[in-house]
Amino acid sequence: MTTALITGIGGFAGSHLAEFLSQQYPQITLHGILRDAEKTENIRSFADRVQLHKCDIVDFQSVFTVLKKVKPDVIFHLAGQAFVPSSFERTAETFSINVIGAINIFEAVKACDIAPRILITTSGEIYGDADGVPLHTEDTVPRPVNPYAASKTSIDYIAQTYRSFEGLDIIIARPFNHTGPRQKPSFVCSSLARQIAANIRQKKEPVLHVGNIKARRDFTDVRDVVRGYWMASQTHDEKHFIFNVCSGNIFSIEEIIHLYEGISGTKFSLDVEPKRLRGYDIQLLAGKADLLREKTGWQPVIPLRQTLTDILAYWTEKEG
Question: 291, CA 20 to 30 Å: which among 107, 140, 269, 317?
Answer without folding.
Answer: 107
